[in-house]
């Protein structure tokens, strides 16, 4: 599992939504939606960043907030969506 120093998803969320916080303070199970760290506009920004960073077409990205509730949820989706297809 990634740590704060080499976890681009955690680093992005801290940089964009928790300015000034230490990346290690954001735990994998912290609820980003319930805590309002990521609001509806933030969710759009996060989806756009995921699409660009991991080369995942926006049409393939779920739009429901539950998919982005925690770092673990986001990482799980990205891991599946960005995995190379097997033949």
TrEMBL record:
Annotated PROSITE patterns: CARRIER (PS50075)
Q: What is this protein called?
A: Acyl carrier protein
**Carrier domain sequence ranges:** 4-82
**InterPro entries assigned:** ACP-like_sf, PP-bd_ACP
Q: What is the lineage of its organism?
A: Bacteria, Bacillati, Actinomycetota, Actinomycetes, Kitasatosporales
């Amino acid at each position: 599992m990634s740590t704060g120093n080499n976890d681009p998803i955690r680093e992005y969320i801290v940089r964009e939504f928790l300015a000034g916080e230490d990346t290690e303070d954001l735990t994998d199970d912290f609820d980003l939606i319930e805590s309002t760290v990521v609001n509806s506009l933030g969710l759009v920004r996060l989806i756009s960043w995921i699409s660009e960073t991991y080369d995942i077409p926006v049409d393939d990205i779920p739009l429901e907030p539950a998919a982005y509730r925690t770092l673990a949820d986001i990482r799980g989706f990205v891991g599946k969506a960005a995995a190379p297809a097997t033949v």
